[in-house]
């Protein structure tokens, strides 16, 4: 009831002004706490974006929700301070939040309703991708529209997955864990992945879903219970613009009674370490990639492999590539063998080349379930796994699929025991140009030394870095940022560290491996089948991988690396970063620069930052009004008769001012009893701090040159505010566009004492403001503060110090705040930051008679 709040406020002004002062101060103090949190969250979001930190979408959304809540609380506290005056702020926040909705809402809403299971041929065409995921949808179309031999099967739909998460209560658990996940912290990723995988694998399927699985099994396989099936991932987003190659688990040779457990294993693989890193790195939200499970008849394959409708490295060449191995094809895509390669002319439909592979063993179906490895027979070792006739059939399929999906295709296939080919997968083929002419000088400088040459290009490009050797997939987490990885085999788990790699050299593997697909997505140069790589490349040695020429050079070859034609990192192209940018555009920009300007109003607030600035400014004005003449002899805010050009108002909470000041409107700094304030003021008024004559809260002449004259020199809103008790100080200082919040408890008990400082803002650009806070951090750290910087926001804290030590530090802090005016406009390099820090410490040491 706004009318009652206004009447109550008026009554307090007349009859109990002291209570009103403290009521407003409590609201003000709460407002400042939420303001601090808002700036902290804003700085974190800006840092994540500008530094391209690899974080889950949930991390951004959760910070947004907390930021929105803290800003709403700020508005609420301002409305408490001035009932009835700022009501429209709530609606303004709602309008901005609604405008940002497209950037903060994951573009898919979970739907836990039936159908939970459908045979491939029964999935409605309009719902194929949404219900069945990429892999199953493509196979359904290939079977339905082209009549290709796809193994019989059905799909546990994405709605079944949504129902599983809803009934088990895991959706909230997953979102909370992902919101705090730092993909660049390998240990945290392992712990999060391990926890989520165990939770998902252990949760039972809903009873209705189990019944649907059983009914669909009976319908597709004619009531037979002895048909072994293959449970495969088919997530939304998989086998589309991104391949997710090898990131999810497939469960082979599953009996009917083990089907629910196998489905849960596929679900759980969505949260395995490599899948988590791949998804987050590629900017997809967890809710955007719900998991469907493709359940198909298990084929006891005589041979298997991969085929491309175009050469992924030479797309302009009119050739089809068919890769074949003995046994199940998983041994090929895992990168463990070198396959036989049939090259087929697209124009003449004939095999033009056959390259022999190297394979000593194969994977076959085990009677006990799953797969087992066994050596090739003597006959198999001497022959290709398939003949030319099979290669030409696969080539014909590829051309049909390419026409159907209107894009070059990457397929997986197998040959059953009766000699029949089966289509197991079809997805868009990632293509890379072979040799950009401008990046391909014919002759390198003679000084360049070739360390290795040969092998096969699995992903083209050039990259350089120190060599890192690993001998097993378990060692991937130890690979440092920017490394050239040298490994015996091209394992799919390398996808978990794709963002760290500048190149890969493997002794085995092929273009057809899962990681090769990921590397082409990430534009990482990869050489495979490079004999002796593990012995020839020493750890730590800087090399340059030239996948175009299939060579490894010693050192960094700038002639190759500095070419502008090389494909660059693709983060900016990802939908996540585009949505993040859109979100920041409604949060971060500060349009309300001058509190005295006409547009400094509720209607002028266009972003969260504008609202933060407006609310903070109006809260300060509400507190400043406490010092007006209408309060008479009551203990309102007094203006400080400052000897330096700062406009400061002081509010006594309890024992912070001398009793004789109660009737005064203006007081001298010496009448403030609070020891922390006295120490700080001593530093601010030290002769070492130069305050030019006529300065108004800071050097307006210099600032005017920077700000283009937009500041009103006569503005009376450019004030600072101090609240003091006998041992407590809360200070909000303004130096033009710079904001300082200092919170201090300085009593007799060292264990309780602390000083917390927040420093933010400035009139320069982002780099200048950031360098300024780095300078402040550099100084404060030398005095025992724990200081952190996010963007242009600094937060520092000093704890458990004796009163004399704290007062000495606060005097230094006063000098530090005084000399940092306009430093954001002077410091342009990190070297300048270090020089300013050294100079300040040297002056302080000389003043104290100590070494810096």
UniProtKB/TrEMBL annotation:
UniProt keywords (A-Z) are:
ATP-binding, Kinase, Magnesium, Metal-binding, Nucleotide-binding, Transferase
Q: Which InterPro entries match?
A: ATP_grasp_subdomain_1, PEP-util_enz_mobile_dom, PEP_synth, Phosphohistidine_dom_sf, PPDK_AMP/ATP-bd
Pathway annotation? Carbohydrate biosynthesis; gluconeogenesis
Give the first-level EC class, as a single word.
Answer: transferase
Cofactor(s) it depends on:
Mg(2+)
Give the enzyme's EC designation. Answer: 2.7.9.2
**Family the UniProt entry places it in:** Belongs to the PEP-utilizing enzyme family.
- What's the protein called, per UniProt? Phosphoenolpyruvate synthase
Q: Cite the source lineage.
A: Bacteria, Pseudomonadati, Thermodesulfobacteriota, Syntrophobacteria, Syntrophobacterales
């Amino acid at each position: 009831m706004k009318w009652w709040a206004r009447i109550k406020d008026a009554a307090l002004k007349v009859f109990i002004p002291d209570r009103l002062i403290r009521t407003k101060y409590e609201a003000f103090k709460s407002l400042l706490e939420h303001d601090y949190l808002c700036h902290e969250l804003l700085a974190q979001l800006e840092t994540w974006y500008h530094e391209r930190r690899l974080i889950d979408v949930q991390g951004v959304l959760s910070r947004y929700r907390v930021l929105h809540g803290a800003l709403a609380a700020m508005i609420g506290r301002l409305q408490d301070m001035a009932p009835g005056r700022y009501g429209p702020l709530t609606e303004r926040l709602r309008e901005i939040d609604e405008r940002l909705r497209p950037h903060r809402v994951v573009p898919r809403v979970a739907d836990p309703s039936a159908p939970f299971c459908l045979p491939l041929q029964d999935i409605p065409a309009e719902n194929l991708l949404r219900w069945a995921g990429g892999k199953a949808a493509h196979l359904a179309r290939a079977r339905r529209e082209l009549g290709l031999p796809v193994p019989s099967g059905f799909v546990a739909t994405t709605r079944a997955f949504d129902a599983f998460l809803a009934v088990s209560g895991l959706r909230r658990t997953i979102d909370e864990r992902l919101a705090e996940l730092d993909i660049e912290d390998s240990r945290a990723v392992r712990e999060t992945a391990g926890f989520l995988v165990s939770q998902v694998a252990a949760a039972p399927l809903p009873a209705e879903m189990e019944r649907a699985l059983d009914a669909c099994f009976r319908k597709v396989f004619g009531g037979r219970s002895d048909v072994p099936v293959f449970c495969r991932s088919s997530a939304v987003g998989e086998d589309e613009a991104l391949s997710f190659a090898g990131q999810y688990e497939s469960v082979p040779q599953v009996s009917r009674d083990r089907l629910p457990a196998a489905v849960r294993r596929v679900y759980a693989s969505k949260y395995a370490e490599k899948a988590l890193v791949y998804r987050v790195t590629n900017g997809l939200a967890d809710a955007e990639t719900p998991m469907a499970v493709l359940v198909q008849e298990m084929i006891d394959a005589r041979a298997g492999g991969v085929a491309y409708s175009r050469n992924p490295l030479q797309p302009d060449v009119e050739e089809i590539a068919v890769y074949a191995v003995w046994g199940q094809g998983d041994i090929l895509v895992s990168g463990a063998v070198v396959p036989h390669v049939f090259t087929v002319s697209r124009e003449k439909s004939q095999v033009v080349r056959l390259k022999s592979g190297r394979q000593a063993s194969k994977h076959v179906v085990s009677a006990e379930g799953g797969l087992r490895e066994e050596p090739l027979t003597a006959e198999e070792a001497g022959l290709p796994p398939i003949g030319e006739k099979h290669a030409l059939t696969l080539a014909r399929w590829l051309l049909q699929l390419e026409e159907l999906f209107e894009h070059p295709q990457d397929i997986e296939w197998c040959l059953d025991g009766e000699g029949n080919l089966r289509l197991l997968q079809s997805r868009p083929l990632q293509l890379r140009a072979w040799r950009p002419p401008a990046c391909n000088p014919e002759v390198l400088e003679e000084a360049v030394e070739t360390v290795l040459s040969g092998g096969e290009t699995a992903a083209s490009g050039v990259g350089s870095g120190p060599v890192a050797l690993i001998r097993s997939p378990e060692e991937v987490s130890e690979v440092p940022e920017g490394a050239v990885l040298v490994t015996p085999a091209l394992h799919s788990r390398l996808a978990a560290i794709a963002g760290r790699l500048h190149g890969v050299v493997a002794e085995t593997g092929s273009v057809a491996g899962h990681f090769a697909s990921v590397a082409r997505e990430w534009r990482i140069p990869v050489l495979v089948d490079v004999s002796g790589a593990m012995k020839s490349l020493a750890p730590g040695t800087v090399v340059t991988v030239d996948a175009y020429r299939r060579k490894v050079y010693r050192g960094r070859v700038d002639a190759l690396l500095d070419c502008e034609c090389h494909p660059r990192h693709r983060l900016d192209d990802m939908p996540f970063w585009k949505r993040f940018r859109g979100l920041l555009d409604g949060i971060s920009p500060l349009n309300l620069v001058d509190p005295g300007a006409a547009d400094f109003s509720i209607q002028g607030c266009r972003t969260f930052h504008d609202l933060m600035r407006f609310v903070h400014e109006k809260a300060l004005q509400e507190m400043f009004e406490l010092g007006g003449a209408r309060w008479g002899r009551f203990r309102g805010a007094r203006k400080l008769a400052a000897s330096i050009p700062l406009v400061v108002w002081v509010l006594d909470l309890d024992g912070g001012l001398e009793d004789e000041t109660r009737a005064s409107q203006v007081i001298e700094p010496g009448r403030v009893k609070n020891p922390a304030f006295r120490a700080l003021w001593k530093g601010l008024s030290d002769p070492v701090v130069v305050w030019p004559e006529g300065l108004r809260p800071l050097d307006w002449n210099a600032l005017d040159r920077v700000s283009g004259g937009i500041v009103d020199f006569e503005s009376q809103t450019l004030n600072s505010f101090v609240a003091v008790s006998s041992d407590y100080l809360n200070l909000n200082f303004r130096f033009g566009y710079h904001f300082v919040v200092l919170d201090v408890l300085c009593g007799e008990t060292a264990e309780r004492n602390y000083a917390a400082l927040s420093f933010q803002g400035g009139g320069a650009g982002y780099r200048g403001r950031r360098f300024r806070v780095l300078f402040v951090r550099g100084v404060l750290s030398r005095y025992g503060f724990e200081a952190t910087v996010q963007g242009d926001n600094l937060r520092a804290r000093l704890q458990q110090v004796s009163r004399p030590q704290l007062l000495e530090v606060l005097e230094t802090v006063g000098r530090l705040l005084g000399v940092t005016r306009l430093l954001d406009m002077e410091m342009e390099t990190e070297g300048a930051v270090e020089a300013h820090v050294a100079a300040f410490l040297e002056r302080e040491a000389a003043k104290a008679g100590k070494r810096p």
